Amino acid sequence: MSEFVDQDLGGARFERADVRNADFSQVLLNDARMHQVDLSGAEIRGSRLHGARLIGVELCDVEITGEIENVTVNGVDIGPLVEAELNRLMPDRAKMRPHDVAGLREAWAILERLWEETIEHARALPPESLHVRVAGEWSFVETLRHLNFASAAWVGRMLLGEPSPWHPLDLPWDEAPGWEGVPWDREARPDLDTVLDVRRSRQAMVAGVIESLTDDQLASTVSRTEPGWPQLEDFPVRECLLIVLNEEWEHRRYAERDLAAVEASTAG
């Protein structure tokens, strides 16, 4: 098997080449031109397709999960259609982008209620099943560890000013570049209650910030320039909290999907 590691192949030409089952990781394909290529069965994760144009393609039995904005299919921008349908299917979803503190408090209360239901669902399964990764996605325990990381980053660090608010079990996203001093133990297998102890403290932290927040503060910005992540200047306070809401909402949805799959496999 050929390996190309840390090589510049810019401008290379591949014609009538067979790269089936190839693994591309941290590869730049900006402005690449593909003609009559077969991507059947391809899996693309954590990647950018900004400005991509797919013309004369066959897009059948395709699953897309991610941020959809200004995506035109056969002349129709499907982003608003997808958003409207998701909000119709899940009415509480529309409340996850509040513009004032009252809406923020309502959204957080909804998330706390929904997550209580999901935790009960998880507790009904064998403990070892909470470490099962469905289709390469995070296990249930890993999902909670990532949400702990998100709250620490966007509330603990950005809003409360803690330079290093991490717990050893916090888990960044898979494609994160990695930062000195930020934990990232993908192989850890803590039990549910251990992770929930951290989660409860993080939830209380977020709830406390939301409870004390004023509308003027929500409309302000914050800067964190010390080493670490996030490292941003004049970043909106509202966006910090919207990121947490989005993480909580979307990962609960994924968690419920995967718990159902695990449940079905154990029952079978």
Q: What descriptors fit this protein?
A:
268 residues, mainly alpha, Four Helix Bundle (Hemerythrin (Met), subunit A), two-stranded antiparallel sheet, 6 helices, 4 strands
Describe the overall structure.
With 268 residues, the chain is mainly alpha-helical. It has a domain at 98-267: dinb family like domain (Four Helix Bundle (Hemerythrin (Met), subunit A)), CATH 1.20.120.450. Helix content is 40%, strand content 5%. It has six helices and four strands. A hairpin with a 2-residue loop joins strand 1 (72-73) and strand 2.
How many strands, which pairing sense, and closed or not: the largest β-sheet?
A: 2 strands, antiparallel
CATH class of the domain at 98-267: Mainly Alpha
Query: How far is the N terminus from the C terminus?
Result: 38 Å
Radius of gyration, in angstroms, nearest whole number: 21 Å
